[in-house]
Amino acid sequence: GLPYSMKEAGFPLGVLLLFGVAYITDYSIILLIKGGNLSSANTYQDLVRKTYGLVGYLILSTLQFLYPFIAMISYNIITGDTLTKVFQRIPGVGPDNVLTDRHFIILLTTIIFTLPISLYRDIAKLGKVSLISLILTIVILIIVMVRTVTFSPQVPKSENAWMFAKSNAVQAVGVMSFAFICNHNSFLVYGSLEEPTLKNWSRVTHVSVSFAVIISVVFAACGYMTFTGYTEGDLFENYCRDDSLATFGRFCYGVTVILTFPLECFVTREVIANVFFHGNLSTVFHIVVTVVIIAVATGVSLVYDCLGIVLELNGVLSATPLVFIIPTACYLRLSKERWNHSDNLISCLILAVGVLVMTVGFVLTILHPQECSHGKEMFYCFPSNIS
């Protein structure tokens, strides 16, 4: 979705916003641990409960449920979009074949892969799955970079492709926040350090976020430079169906998404367990809750198939408060520093930006939903159509 965010914001402003979101993510992750140290909390939920009581805890739990749940819906949409185009390249599989039906593919991958893997109780069993997913992500990045050089000359540049800023910049920040969010795992990673000190945590955070922003900028720039104003919410929707390298990329992408889906299911199930079952699910309830979560997410993704608006809504409604608003609000309440201390001033600024992005982004996304050309072959794939 990052190349799509460049189209929404305008490429120059989009790159600046990407660095801005990375800086805010970096700052808020460190701020979370500072808040945890001030309140003697060792989880995000514990921090918010000690700072804002039960109401704050319930709001955070709702957001921590919504973010991975909507992510699961987006992963199903991606699976349906990408794997159908992969199967179309198999000899003998025509447009009427069941393997080219996105509904069938989503149901098939859910029943065979995502549901069984999601039923694990121990998240550590997904370690190898995460490693495979990471390797495939690098492969996908290389494919996108290669196609920028080899395919972009075939794609005509859209009008105003290099405008500095465009009107949907706020929604673009939502998509970027969705890409960078990792606050819900921060305390877990902090506790895993050999020496969990603020200095060590800051160093780990700076290195991790720097690495992430480099990959993100390269991915966003290469994707947007290839397709400019024609960039779709799902970048692989832009490549032609007969593109063999892109087909391999789609396959890697589909596998990555299928392997990432269970991680999000673990988080949603844990939130439900903590809020309604005091953190413990019996074997029966573990299975029932897992099946219900996946069934609802799958049902929504079967009905709705436009990825761009899903990323925007999840960004502005879930990721933005988790990254921008809650960490800064907790720190400002706990801080013993003078009001004009740099941490307090920067926290106030980030909090204000977060509220602005969340409210304006939501209103604009509802009032002006983005067009979606799901499943259509792009016009530049037929050279005779390009004048």
UniProtKB/TrEMBL annotation:
Domain Amino acid transporter transmembrane: 1-366
Keyword Membrane annotated: yes
Keywords: Amino-acid transport, Membrane, Transmembrane, Transmembrane helix, Transport
GO cellular component: membrane
Keyword Transmembrane helix: yes
Transmembrane domains' residue ranges: 12-33, 54-78, 103-120, 129-149, 169-193, 205-227, 247-267, 279-304, 316-334, 346-367
Primary subcellular site in the record, as a coarse category: membrane
InterPro entries per the UniProt record, alphabetical: AA_transpt_TM
Function: Putative sodium-dependent amino acid/proton antiporter.
Name of the molecule in the record: Putative sodium-coupled neutral amino acid transporter 11
Native source species: Nestor notabilis (Kea)
Lineage: Eukaryota, Metazoa, Chordata, Craniata, Vertebrata
